[in-house]
Amino acid sequence: MIAGAEVVSDTSFDAEEEEFDLFLQKFSEQRSFQLNRVKFPINVTVPDTDDEGMAPIEETIGRYEWEMLDFTYDSTFLTRPYDQYYQVVRFQNDTAVVEIRGINNGIYADYYFELIDNRWYLVTLCEASF
After folding, report:
1. In the chain, where the domains are located
2. Which of 36, 76, 82, 114 shows the smallest number of beta carbons within 10 Å?
3. What is the tally of helices (H) and strands (E) in the chain?
4. pTM of the model
5. Could you count the other beta carbons within 10 Å of the beta carbon of residue 24?
6. Buried b / exposed e across 32-71, counting CB within 10 Å, b at 16+?
7. Which tens digit of pLDDT belongs to each residue from 81-122?
């Protein structure tokens, strides 16, 4: 070591953990952001439209088949005349689940997000609406 030389640590600092509410807002509004925050190819569970009982099946969706999701929600969705539903976010450790539940209309979906390197990503979803 050279006399008088400063020792600089090569320790990298982790970015601050992303706030989920701000992430979800940006995820809903910006297509490019959403495409970067979905872990493609993503495995999903959806109703089989070819099956009379619409039994759930697993599918894999690639980046180019992805349809934009919008989690923008306000309380009027609970009282509007058609397609009423409520939306709840549940947290457990480094996971957030956005639950969407319809009111007497068959809407039922869960979207699973995971905190990876202090950033939120959609990792899977289960769409059981009929």
Report:
1. 20-127
2. 82
3. 2, 6
4. 0.84
5. 20
6. eebeebbeeebebebbeeeeeeeeeeeeebeeeebeeeee
7. 889 999 999 999 999 999 999 999 999 999 999 999 999 999
